[in-house]
Amino acid sequence: MKRHFLELLVATATLLVSVSAFSGEDAEMAKLATRVCANCHGPHGDSVSSAFPRLAGQQAAYTEAQLKTFKDKTRGDPYAQAYMWGMASQLDEDTIKRLGAYYAAQKPHPARKGDAARMAQGKSIYENGMPQAEVPACALCHGENAHGKDTIPRLAGQHPEYLVKQLVAFKSMQRANNPVMHSVTDKMSLEQIQAVAEFAASK
Amino acid sequence: MQAPGNRAIGILASAVAFVSLACFAPQSYAVPSFARQTGLACEGCHTVFPELTPFGRAFKLNGYLIDNLPQVKGLTADNKEALLLNWLPPISIMFQTSYTSTSKALPDSGGTGNSQNGQVLFPQQASLFYAGRIAPNVGGFIQMTYAPEDGALVWDNTDIRFADHATVSGKDLTWGVSLNNNPTVQDPWNSTPAWQVPFDQRSSAAPTPAAATQIDGTLGGAVAGLTLYGYFANAFYAEFGGYRSAPQNFGGQVGAGPLDSAAENVVNGVAPYWRLAYEWQQDRSSWSVGTFGMNVELYPGAGAPLSGATNKYRDVAFDTQYQFIGDETIYSVQAVYINEKQTLDASFASGASTNQSDTLKTLRIGGSYYYQRKYGASLGYFSTTGSNDPLHYEQGTALTGSGSGSPDSKGWIGELNYVPWQNVKFSLQYTAYNRFNGGSSDYDGFGRNASDNNTVYLLGWFNF
Known about the structure:
The complex is a heterodimer of chains A (about 200) and B (about 475). Helix content of chain A is about 60%, strand content about 0%. Chain A contains ten helices and no strands. Chain A has helices at about 1-25, 25-40, 60-70, 80-85, 95-105, 115-130, 140, 160-170, 180-185, 190-200. In chain A, α3 (about 60-70) runs antiparallel to α5 (about 95-105), α6 crosses α10 (about 190-200) and α8 crosses α10 (about 190-200). With about 475 residues, chain B is mainly beta. Chain B contains five helices and 19 strands. The interface of A and B includes residues 34, 43, 86, 89 and 90 of A.
């Protein structure tokens, strides 16, 4: 009886390992993400609070780049300092790369439509920019669907409030390590920032 | 009207009772040890210390294990972790100093006149903490405290826990075992007694109501408990365990015992503890509702052998907490209701209680608002009511006694806070009593009114 139980246990464990291997998920990163990152960024990178960005489906190269800027303290907005400088301080290159890949493979948060008037204003800025203010269209870099590419982040499905906070941080130079985004946001009003964030997040 | 001799005895007894009550005043702390270990600012775990954020609760339930310090590591032959120790120990210090003034000066302990009003405590309390990882899956919050009423460094709140994760139905289950010395000190919500907010700090130089339920801090520091907990899908929490007496320095003895009639209120066997809670999170808001309680059987001791009849206490409590944590504003509300049914077989038999069965009920509700985590205000109401039992609630004691034999106390507390830095807080608190130990006027039978105990309390609190 005891032997049969052990055989069953081994078979179940083997099956579980096989399923895990078949799914192609990095088990070590899944463990790290569940035990540490998920406390703020939510299970599988789908955070509840808009204080913390959704990482699910984010471009791997972008996540990787951000973790590096947290680690070397070149990204200095208040939340980065309060939370991520510490959390990224002991991550090695390999872990940073694999975490980026892990979150890129997670299912992104479904988009949610916002206020109609604001969405219309945001759509105009996102797709056409603000030529008179020399603000380029967001879609040029972030893509028509706001999925981003390489080190250009995915905005679709993100918390709009989080995007607003980041755009304001670029504008005020609290997040000073991205001169392109500073020049883009420099001439935008808070109302325009809120509109474009709501539209981009809804994609 | 009491005879002068009785009055002096009453006042002396009141001083002793007051000091012993002060020892079990609610205590709550936040520790820079965790900031040192994780590299996170205090705001990661606290709205404003000691109130925990959802991340702070998760950090606690995860066994205080998240670390971002270089580790001293040891591996077994099959490559498993045999040692994981912070390169530098997460040690921290807390220092509190306070000023207390009551509406009317407290009676002189020598029996004539009044004491000096406007008491400065320096420190009110000073603590040394080790808080953080101990082993790969074990972490702890360990506190030693010096307080003027103890006159020595004594063991304070301690929670050592093992924590791990499992996946159930595709969702995360954080589970663990806590070894602790104060029922609810292991709880992650600030609506339970050990870490209650607001008004986690009260003056230890001002009188506080005498009656409190067992789970409301009465057993703190005199028991040791082992509990098993699980937190499923970031929403459902369950915990069960038991507590057994583990008093320190009882009966003036030096050494570790034996636990005998020299001790007071010794737990018969194991007192079961339980806790269920549900937390709902939506963007910046979180709301929890829960219930907790314990059944305690106590031998009175204090000269009586630890056998025969016991006093039985069945505590059932309900609590709730709402938090909104914005970038500029933070507000939260906490409430707890505790219902205690007392079956005082031992006290009734020895003539220490008038009734064989009593009830004691406590309600507390309070709310806080903070702007930029810097400027805060809190308001709260408290009420403890129960059976009239003259022998149980000590008559003939000035200040801390009850002339009517009633445990009823009710009142309001307001507080203003200034937090110039995340680890430093200044508080100005005012407590107004409508009733104190059973009465509004002449509550103790020695002419003191409830409002005489209204307290102005100024606190400086430094964590580093």
